[in-house]
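Sequence in, structure out.
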Amino acid sequence: MTLDPLSKAARDLLRVNADVAYTKLVPREPGPAAVADRLHSMSPADVIAGKINDADDAACVLAALWLWHDYLDESHTICQAIETPSGSYLHAMMHRREGDFGNAKYWVARAGRHPAFDALAAQATDLIASAPASKALLRMVNNGWNGAAFVDFVQQVHESPSDPLHELAVALQQMEWRVIFDHCLRGAVG
């Protein structure tokens, strides 16, 4: 029995370009072609080490790997077919990253009250604690995680990389991805 529910192949993909992966709020180019080649050959069963207990969550893990490397179309193809809160929330994350903010908010609403939102709110609160007080930041975490408020925040700062809040948005985006990815990974092996 393996203690790591993520396969070695998937773990290796997370290490590719780890210093620059998922650092753009609205990426204009996908990640390395070598990553796409490897991901194209993978199924949800290839990203999970051991038995899959929830096929939708395993598919979400694969969609999240595509998203991590800025392959938005491939992530979209997978997550739009998953009719769960995680599938909908990943769908929202993908649309936010492509700059389709209205559609992102639609999919946030479709996700409903996702079980990972408490963890997102707690971790986001820690990240924004050192930022200047702002209604936009408080809307994201007041009464739990507010994905629609995060979409608004990203829309506000995505074209201003010199804005100090841009760096915070990137950190929040990376945290959000990790929390959702971990939630789906745990669900896949259940």
